[in-house]
């Protein structure tokens, strides 16, 4: 997804994103486009609820404020959040994170009072109603993003909770009411407020930014303070001018993984400005639409829609393994490839970690892989941008069927190829699947002079010619070194030594 130059965050009415039978209206298409471009450019968008739903959300914020203010000042150790990723789908009730000055109450349908650590206290009011409201909104937003990506209707239903939940089922999605910076929260007294020289306290530094593992996250707060990093790397305040019926939506890592990286996750942090004016803290309602624990994240829907899926997204990932990894591991291509799960002899799916070679990062990429990655980069940066500006949905052919298409004037893909300037002799398939020679033609079209500035001498080698070509390359490299050093043609030179020196830039 690429942005269309929106000057501010996109504002969309939830009512305009509701799916309906029949042909999509112009209003629906416009709303979907505004939402998707805002997510691409700012990693967030503003959703407008109905007046009734907005009032319900505000009443929940008022109730949460009363709930946290009556909490005791000193905390017991059993409510300190320990961030156990293995229990991510079981969290319920009150917990605190003193180092971040944050308190939360998690509501998760399917957890009975006897299972909840907060069974003896009254929770904030209206949580079941708010959960139902925001869960429906998150699913509608997810379907709108799917429509923009040209996926089928409700493509993620297999990895979402049942609606309604069946007996003994516990919701994977969670509704949290949160309090940041309550000054009577003595569990965080190691933060010395009086030691601050100015009136601003940054609750999360830039290097401590967060990224959710959800599909979609919805946030409504009583005060501004949520910052999200846009596609240019700038931190922007996204809830500074929200109306009473508006909330923020942003995508998470699960959606990033399920869409093969086409939807980037939002990096965010929260701060409290003018702390002296916010002695009671900042209160927010956060809903996270999560995948079910016993399911698998894969990119089959993206492939079915004709999107290219890069190597790091091709292996399916079990949700349990996914949730137990850190955000850094999930965003690292090498780590993503280790989260596969082969079928065991008994037919069960068991998660395993492939051992990475200790020197894998030291080895240069094979020429064919370098060429493939370059082709995929140009597709994302150049071709997709052209298609977005012209309103074209890229749906590639298969290599076999397109070999005949390029010879026909009225072929199924001829109009798209002409619109985006596709190379005439290159099949209209995802660059990842093109032969190496066709990849070079593709790159030369969108980046003229590309091959002259890139070393592609090994790309078109046949297997039987490898040793002969390497010998010639070594000899030619030695000649270049001799010429550079000004050595006479009759001088005796150890070519193997000079090749090593040349590669080290000596």
TrEMBL record:
Gene3D superfamilies: B-lactam Antibiotic, Isopenicillin N Synthase, Chain (2.60.120.330). Residues 343-367 are annotated as: Disordered. Coiled coil: none annotated. This is 2-oxoglutarate (2OG) and Fe(II)-dependent oxygenase superfamily protein. It comes from Lithospermum erythrorhizon.
